[in-house]
UniProtKB/TrEMBL annotation:
Name of protein: Sugar ABC transporter substrate-binding protein
Record Pfam families: FTCD_C
GO molecular function: catalytic activity
Domain Cyclodeaminase/cyclohydrolase: 16-191
Lineage: superkingdom: Bacteria
Length: 215
């Protein structure tokens, strides 16, 4: 089980260097969930950056309302994903405690089940938030500043990867649940999100790469 002292300072308050060092260390938190949420937040931050550089420019006057809307939504997604870094870490401790309960304790199985269900909440929400970012990046690929298409590509690549990475923590938890109806509903949602939005994110990457190679 991880040391509580390691999480007294919220993960999102650490420097990039400290977060990466904690991720590399022999400890459970942060792990893949936190890394996925951070990747999604960074991808969405690039979405916001492109919007910031586009808004107010005469060349893009016809799409200003769209760009402002994109910026507002992207910032909401980014903030949500940053919050999910901490939420994912906080959900791990009750699960770790549950597994440390002696197997002879009749309450062990139910405690693990409830903690596992709670642990599913952050990764499925990460997936939902990353899915929100993909249409924004699609729109910026058409309406954003032509000078920042490489950043649209990077944003889409990060959000697509974060979407798939987040799903790992959904599936690893649902696979152990006794409540199969609950598990299968979450798995179906995760499958649907990947099925729709991962190809769309990759399509943005491919389109931007083709444009950049043309010069």
């Amino acid at each position: 089980m991880r040391d509580n002292r390691d999480t007294q300072q919220k993960l999102t308050e650490r420097s990039c260097v400290d977060f990466a060092a904690a991720l590399a260390a022999k400890q459970s938190v942060p792990g893949g969930g936190g890394a996925a949420a951070l990747a999604g937040a960074l991808g969405t931050a690039l979405c916001s950056m492109v919007a910031h550089y586009t808004v107010g420019k005469k060349a893009y006057a016809s799409v200003q309302d769209d760009i402002e809307r994109i910026l507002i939504e992207a910032e909401d997604v980014r903030e949500n994903l940053m919050g999910l870094i901490n939420a994912d870490a906080e959900a791990f401790e009750p699960l770790a405690r549950a597994y440390s309960i002696p197997k002879s304790d009749p309450a062990r199985a139910r405690t693990i089940e409830l903690a596992t269900k709670t642990a599913c909440s952050a990764p499925i929400e990460m997936m939902r938030q990353c899915a929100r970012a993909v249409p924004l990046l699609e729109e910026l690929a058409e309406k954003g500043s032509r000078l920042l298409l490489s950043d649209v590509l990077c944003g889409a690549a990060l959000c697509g990867a974060a979407l798939v990475a987040s799903s790992a923590n959904v599936y690893v938890n649902t696979g152990t649940l006794g409540d199969r109806e609950f598990a299968e509903e979450l798995e179906a949602e995760a499958d649907a999100l990947i099925g729709e939005y991962a190809p769309r994110a990759q399509a943005v990457v491919d389109a931007m790469r083709a444009h950049l190679r043309r010069g």
